Write a sequence for this structure.
């Protein structure tokens, strides 16, 4: 592969033929790594060798999640940025084989007060809901000072073996359970359900676009 870059406004370029003006003008393709003697000689040839890995390859089982170092895979939880470079199934017009998401950050919706017949217990600055099952009680909380209902993820690495990871994405079953738990907050639970599945409020213009969380 040969690389060129377009000469930008204000960039210096030599006057090789000594005619009083640069030998390349704005926008001209300038060869990269051609020795630097002129702007017409072809650039150095750059070769990229792409191949599938050989030997032992790190593998996740179906439905498995990786946060910390596991199976030779890196500590994704500590990364500032990560990206899926290639997904064979998407190339074949299927659903994604892997999804990257922030599993812990909280989402919230306004709630003026907790329904009076829901039992709560104080957990620092938050209120938890005593009669909910653990997998919901540890993720759903209320901030009475700011009048916000929060839903977040839970990562517990205190035990032995695989850590407990509960995502900050509310499932359909969890939404139904919470709305049935008390009908007075059903609307806010519905809003929070939507917020956990589309936290940035992206509007999908095409009916064929599917939220990857739902696949």
């Amino acid at each position: 592969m040969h690389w060129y870059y377009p000469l930008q406004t204000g960039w210096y370029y030599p006057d090789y033929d000594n005619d009083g003006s640069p030998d390349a003008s704005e926008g001209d393709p300038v060869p990269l790594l051609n020795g630097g003697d002129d702007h017409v000689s072809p650039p150095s040839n750059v070769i990229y060798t792409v191949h599938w890995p050989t030997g032992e390859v790190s593998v996740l089982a179906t439905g498995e999640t990786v946060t910390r170092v596991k199976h030779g895979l890196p500590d994704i939880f500590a990364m500032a940025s990560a990206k899926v470079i290639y997904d064979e199934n998407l190339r074949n017009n299927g659903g994604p084989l892997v999804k990257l998401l922030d599993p812990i950050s909280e989402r919230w919706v306004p709630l003026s007060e907790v329904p009076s017949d829901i039992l709560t217990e104080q957990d620092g600055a938050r209120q938890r809901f005593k009669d909910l099952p653990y997998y919901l009680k540890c993720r759903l909380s209320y901030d009475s000072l700011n009048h916000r209902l929060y839903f977040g993820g839970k990562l517990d690495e205190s035990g032995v073996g695989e850590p407990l990871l509960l995502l900050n994405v509310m499932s359909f079953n969890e939404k139904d359970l919470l709305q049935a738990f008390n009908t007075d907050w059903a609307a806010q639970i519905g809003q929070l359900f939507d917020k956990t599945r589309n936290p940035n409020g992206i509007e999908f213009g095409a009916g064929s676009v599917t939220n990857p969380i739902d696949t």
User: Anything to note?
Assistant: The mean pLDDT is 88. The longest strand covers residues 107-110.
